[in-house]
Design a protein that fits this description.
Two copies of one chain form a homodimer.
Chain A: H1 3-11, H2 14-17, H3 21-26, E1 41-44, E2 51-54, E3 59-68, H4 70-75, H5 77-93, E4 98-107, H6 111-128, E5 132-138, E6 145-155, E7 170-175, E8 180-181, E9 188-190, H7 197-212, E10 218-221, H8 226-238, E11 241-245, H9 257-260, E12 264-265, E13 268-273, H10 278-286, E14 291-299, E15 303-307, E16 313-318
Parallel strand pairs in A: 4-5, 9-12, 11-15
Antiparallel strand pairs in A: 1-2, 2-3, 3-6, 4-6, 7-13, 7-14, 8-9, 10-13, 11-14, 15-16
Helix pairs in contact in A: 5-6
GO molecular function (chains A, B): thiamine-phosphate kinase activity
InterPro entries (chains A, B): Methan_mark_2, PurM-like_C_dom, PurM-like_C_sf, PurM-like_N, PurM-like_N_sf, ThiL-like, UCP036540_AIR
Organism (chains A, B): Methanococcus voltae (strain ATCC BAA-1334 / A3)
Chain lengths: ~325, ~325
């Protein structure tokens, strides 16, 4: 796939363009902690996979939430229920954290759909080992809605943030490429439904180890915006640029590049790390079936370029002039 | 208002009858902590104002979530945004906890409504002093949705639960009666929009003090199910009955009983406590403008009776045969 087409693919992808809304919302939530006699410390709020709130001297609490897309919910409520657990589990893991529990708000127009949704949630809870401990169900809702929030925890000295990439870091894309596109959703790369609970949970736990062993400077869970969009968000908040060879991104042979770049994977992350940590980082991930490859480097300027094995080069984003989420 | 009418009012009230759905949902979320290598301790999940998860030797994390009713959102998006903070703040306070932070999922069909909603949320954050730290906004949603979740914390030895009422406890209803019915929603008793941030936050803080000073055995925030419905849920999960004089419930003179009993108040709680703690409990509340009165007593059997100043008596619930939430 030529690089101009890749640029177009990413920049017109709904999974990326919808992130522009974040800026409008975030400005409403400026919080004056001193004025509020607030007992905790907001270390980081919007802009990362989860918010980080200092809890005591050593630990922070992580908060994240996701609204499961209406079309997904209506087309396959079971899978929506299952994925609601998956996406939240990954939001906490991407911070190097451990999940404490979830709450959810469910609105359903009919009971059959509700039963499938609950079955999917239940299977997700069993697979990922994270409890749902509260929430509400509206069985006669006007609209089908599944909103899930998750709370986790992480040691302050081990948290994996996405705004902390350093110039000169190696960029490592890491995917479990052992999976299949979901029958109903071609942009959904299922890697967990066929795997054991033990392996899936080990994958999440590996991020805790990466954080505690200081094997990465920045990390982000690859999600809706796809590989390059997710990295773009990480670079934007880190105020950095990059050069990335798209041909080096771990990929399933079954999926064409045009689909792979925007796919939402069951277990995938992008890291930046110093060169001397690359081998240990890769090994930690490969031990849990996640294929990790160095694909590029973080740059001090704010230009995000993509290249390929033929040495073509295209500018994907100039963060001096453009933004993805504006955080 | 005669007691037979009160019984009918409560038992047909949508705020109470919709709680029956909880039972169906809860059964899907049984969690086997040992099998899941779960690092925390689920002390209590569904059935209380917030879930309690043991975090370390001394502390527990509290999780709660609320979906703001669609009609409220559409009629007055500003007020819905404001109330989404209020209800979550009270869920944590009712556990004797301190709030850490909120996330929310917003779906809006039009931008004007979105602006009002965000303004209400922002004013709620300022009033209650609790930050919104994450979430998502869908600006082109099919449906108007506002789902908010909150995380808090409490010392394990100070948590106020609702399933811990003891036979012989005095039942204390506590309301800030200094307020007004909302112009748009007659079942909404606004006590906070006109008050200082300092007083409103002191009201929430008083519950922390009540927990830490062991001034109550059980507590529940009075919310959707109204005064008697809320007490009913507390008795049900405590596996107790009661005799309650409805004429003793603190009430605004401006509001008829038929409206007051089902009203959703800005700051109100029902407690059960031993007789020797009644005065200290009342004083703690009255110091923050909350009027507290002993209205009845918890009984060992599972019959929940209401009485009045004329000594009439009616059975409201027989929990051997009926349930409100089935938890």
């Amino acid at each position: 796939m030529d690089l101009k087409s890749v640029v177009n693919l990413v920049k017109t992808f709904d999974g990326v363009t919808r992130k522009k809304e974040i800026k409008n919302v975030v400005n409403n939530f400026k919080f004056n902690a001193e004025e509020c006699d607030y007992d905790f410390e907001i270390i980081s709020d919007f802009g990362d996979d989860a918010a980080i709130i200092g809890y005591d001297d050593e630990n922070a609490i992580l908060l994240a939430a996701d609204g499961i897309w209406g079309k997904l919910l209506e087309k396959n409520p079971y899978w929506a229920g299952y994925c609601s657990v998956l996406v939240n589990a990954n939001d906490i893991a991407a911070m190097g954290g451990k999940s404490i529990g979830m709450t959810n708000i469910i609105g359903i127009k009919n009971l059959e759909m509700g039963k499938d949704l609950l079955k999917g949630l239940k299977d997700g809870v069993k697979k990922f080992g994270i409890p749902v401990v509260g929430g509400h169900t509206h069985p006669d809702a006007q609209c089908n809605v599944l909103d899930v929030s998750i709370t986790g925890t992480v040691r302050k000295d081990s948290v994996l943030r996405s705004d902390s990439a350093k110039a000169g870091d190696k960029i490592v894309f890491a995917y479990d490429i052992d999976g299949k596109a979901h029958d109903d959703f071609s942009l959904n790369w299922d890697t967990t439904s066929m795997k054991s609970k033990r392996l899936v949970r080990s994958q999440l736990k590996s991020l805790v180890d990466i954080g505690e062993n200081k094997l990465a400077n920045a990390c982000k869970d690859i999600s809706n915006p796809g590989a390059l969009g997710t990295l773009g968000m990480l670079l934007e908040v880190s105020r950095k640029g990059a050069v990335v060879n798209v041909d080096k991104i771990p990929k399933s042979d079954d999926i064409p590049m045009s689909q792979w770049l925007n796919i939402y994977p069951g277990s995938a992350f992008v890291f930046t790390t110093s060169e001397n940590n690359v081998n240990a980082l890769k090994k930690t991930l490969e031990d849990v079936n996640i294929t990790a490859e160095v694909c590029g480097e973080v740059k001090a300027d704010k230009k995000y370029y993509i290249t390929n094995d033929k040495n073509d080069k295209e500018l994907l984003y100039d963060f001096e002039k453009e933004y993805i989420c504006g955080c």
